[in-house]
Design a protein that fits this description.
Blueprint (H helix, E strand, L loop, with lengths): L16 H5 L9 H34 L16 H16 L4
């Protein structure tokens, strides 16, 4: 039998030695996976730059033909070059997303 002065202590939780030594799961990635991740990031950056250039060009094109009766804007009712540039940006994302 146990005497009243004998105690058992059970250590559970995050402060135990086993939990403190556990750094979590290690994510093992090969060099090829790291390279592919960077390539995808660069493709997204290039896509963004191409879309910005295209949208800027569409906005300038729309503003140069704002006074012409037959407008070449994407939305004939909207004459604002900013709206045309925004719609062109979204259009270029859809068209050029094949790069990714």
């Amino acid at each position: 039998m146990f005497s009243p002065s004998a105690y058992f202590v059970v250590h559970i939780g995050r402060e135990t030695k086993a939990m403190l030594n556990n750094g979590g799961p290690r994510h093992k990635r090969t060099g090829l996976e790291k390279l592919m991740n960077m390539e995808v990031v660069w493709c997204v950056v290039i896509l963004g730059v191409l879309c910005l250039v295209g949208a800027t060009g569409a906005g300038l094109w729309s503003s140069s033909f704002a006074n012409v009766p037959f407008s070449v804007a994407l939305n004939p009712e909207e004459k604002s070059p900013l709206v045309s540039a925004f719609l062109s940006f979204l259009t270029f994302i859809i068209i050029l997303q094949v790069r990714i």
